[in-house]
Amino acid sequence: MKFLLTVWCSLLSAVLLAQAQPDWKVVGQLRTRDAKEIKASTWSIGGETLDRDYTDYQSYKTYLGPLGAKRIRLQGGWSKCEKVKGQYDFAWLDAVIPDAASRGVIPWVELSYGNPIYEGGGEAKLAGHIPTSPEALAAWDNWVRAMVTRYRAQVSEWEIWNEPDLNPKHTGAMIGEFYVRTARLVKSIQPNARLIAIGLAGVNRLEFMEDFYEALKKENALDLVDIQTYHGYAYNPDASYPGIEKLRQLVWRYNPKIVFMQGENGAPSTPKAVTIGALRDQDWSELSQTKWDLRRMLGDHGRGIATNLFTISDIHYAAGDHMVGVNTKGLLKTNPDKTIERPKLVYKAAQHVFSLFDEQIALVPETKPTVNVDSLSAFAYRHRKQGGTLVTLWKHEAVPVDNYAPKSTTVTVEGQFSQPVFVNLITGQVYKIPKGQWTRKGKTHTFTNLPVPDYPVLVADKSALAFAR
Fold it and tell me: What pTM was computed for the model?
């Protein structure tokens, strides 16, 4: 695996050398860590669509631990579990849930979709209808009861449905009632379970969400949401945040204890003639995918939002679903039979972020770096034990592109820098910042002529980093 990734990365080196690769002394390479080596973090990786056999867990499982994400999102698949009324086959999940956990990657499981063996049972596909008939709802309850009972020792978080707002027949009130029904059932079996609501597709669906929470309020059930997930794909990931903030303010009016999580986001890696799914009508490459994903991950992280990166493997949608073709948002490129051809460039970049930004790195929201250019994101962190400061930086004015000339930037920030370095998060290379390009006055440090591209880079104290040997 490491050899394949090294070969592929070398093919893009000519492009990357022109982007955030300063002519400074290289002092090391970021160390990547297996999930088992990481105590805790906010990072999750997508493992979606196993319920419809669009990806192959057995092919990608060896890449999970080395990636470094601490959680994986899985879809429970009522229709796959119950193909004959009243008979459950959990063998496919038994081959996934314990195995992922054994690799240090803890599953959180989405309860979905419908089951067409029941009249009024809904559809087993994206944007399908929830079950509605008395028989189907009773069968849904039975399946949820069986799922939670079987996996409660390994799964502590349950997400209820996925992107219900895609179906025009769904209303927020309808989904609210269905959510309360399911949430109460989960809690009756697993009282300490954390409940995740609803994988909202559209960040700007405020009316839908208001109706959803009003339905919960009516049932005195606002405490049944621990985590609110949303998706909301945008060509420029940084353009999403005003809408996300409006959504947060709406939800917090009902319950300020609800935690927000980006439940599914990522960019394709191929031209629009190849990919399907969100963001499909624009040309992408493995480099622009990598830049987009890094901006989404660290844009979320800098705002205190956990992230589920979509997704581990390219997804092969089949006839009968919401779409047909290959969704190329995977970190792993697949063969036509869904086996893994190789890791993409984004896999290595994600390793750098997942390995570095764990529980040892604390966001310092009260510290606001100042810069001399417009449209630049900057967030400050500190290493809890070593005390060293880290600052993430990237230009965010547009959709990421393959060729982008870094902008010479001056950054001023309070913090601790005894040996300041500059880090390219795609390549993982660490550079010593020349002495003539930084000054210190008390706790305030100023760095000049930093080459900031349209994807995140770091200015960090060397003590805050772990280096490959």
Answer: 0.95
